[in-house]
Amino acid sequence: MNFWNFFWLLFVAFAFIAYLSILLSVVRDIFRDDKHSGLWKAVWFLFLVFVPFLTALVYLIIHSRDMAEHQAKAQVNAQAEVQDYIRRAAGRNAAGELAEAAQLLKDGVLSEAEFAQLKAKVLADAS
């Protein structure tokens, strides 16, 4: 295999991987889109199956802005889920529990004795 055959093989492999990446991005965006009904999604998908290159190109031209918005919304949702998981996994800290207990005392839900007992328990657990 000479240099130009190897170079051509590298170029074709790169183009094929880029094409698959675009195709998968379009499929992901079709099913992520809330604006279109299931029928439109099925039509786009069928065209992607039978005329993939042209359909992907047309979809990118028509829906490029929507694709960016869908991706940004998905990233925000993923970040929120990660933050929520971290908060749940880390548990509550002593300051947060004391602040909540103080608010309950202020609202009249807890008595002074209950607040003192809860405060002692939280401080004992923290140390």
Protein model, in words:
With 127 residues, the protein is an all-alpha fold. The chain has 2 domains: 3-91, no CATH class; 92-127, no CATH class. Helices cover 87% and strands 0% of the residues. The chain is built from 5 helices and no strands. α1 (3-32) packs antiparallel against α2 (38-50) and α4 runs antiparallel to α5. The longest helix has 39 residues, at 52-90. The chain starts with a helix and ends with a helix. The mean pLDDT is 89.
Helix/strand/pairing category: mainly alpha
Estimate what percentage of residues fall within beta strands.
under 5%
Tell me roughly what share of residues is in helical segments. over 70%
Termini distance?
A: 70 Å
Low-confidence segments, given as residue ranges, are: none
In the residues, how many domains can be counted? 2
- Average per-residue pLDDT, rounded, comes to 89
Rounded Rg: 28 Å
Number of strands: 0
Tally the helices: 5
Name the helix and strand elements from N-terminus to C-terminus, one letter apiece.
HHHHH
Shape: elongated
> How would you sum up the major sheet?
none
Which helices and strands occur, and which strands form pairs?
Layout: H1 3-32, H2 38-50, H3 52-90, H4 94-107, H5 112-126
Helix pairs in contact: 1-2, 1-3, 2-3, 4-5
Briefly characterize the structure.
This protein is an all-alpha fold and 127 residues long. It has helices at 3-32, 38-50, 52-90, 94-107, 112-126.
